[in-house]
Amino acid sequence: MTALHTDDFRREAVRIALTCGLTRRQVASDLRVGLSTLSKWIQRSRPDDKPPAHDIDLAKENDRLRKANRLLLQEREIFKKPTVFFAKQSK
Fold it and tell me: What's the domain count of the chain?
């Protein structure tokens, strides 16, 4: 049996899946591996393979920034409507 992915690839895939803030399905798709394969790799990872605290902090910061970005996009959409209205009124 030949291994399609190296141990380093598997470890990195597990680290990404546990810290990036994306769903496992999204990570599996991005890495072009099956969801069940990625899930098995995560289950098999040893306790000492836990992501470093720095990676966890980055994941939390990414989540915070995504939420802030979503809020800013919503606010921008709200402010667009009056701008379009007043632009039409001034013509």
Answer: 1
Task: Give the alpha-carbon dihedral of 6, 10, 12, 13, to 10 degrees.
Answer: 130
Domain of residue 31, residue span = 7-90
Question: What is the signed CA dihedral for 25, 30, 34, 37, rounded to 10 degrees?
Answer: -90
Residue 21 lies in a domain: yes
Q: pTM for this one?
A: 0.49
Q: Does any domain span residue 40?
A: yes
Distance of CA 50 to the CA centre of its chain: 18
| pLDDT one-digit tens code per residue, 63-80 | 999 999 999 999 999 888
Residue 1 lies inside a defined structural domain of this protein: no
pLDDT score at 1:
35
> How many helices and strands (H and E) does the chain possess?
4, 0
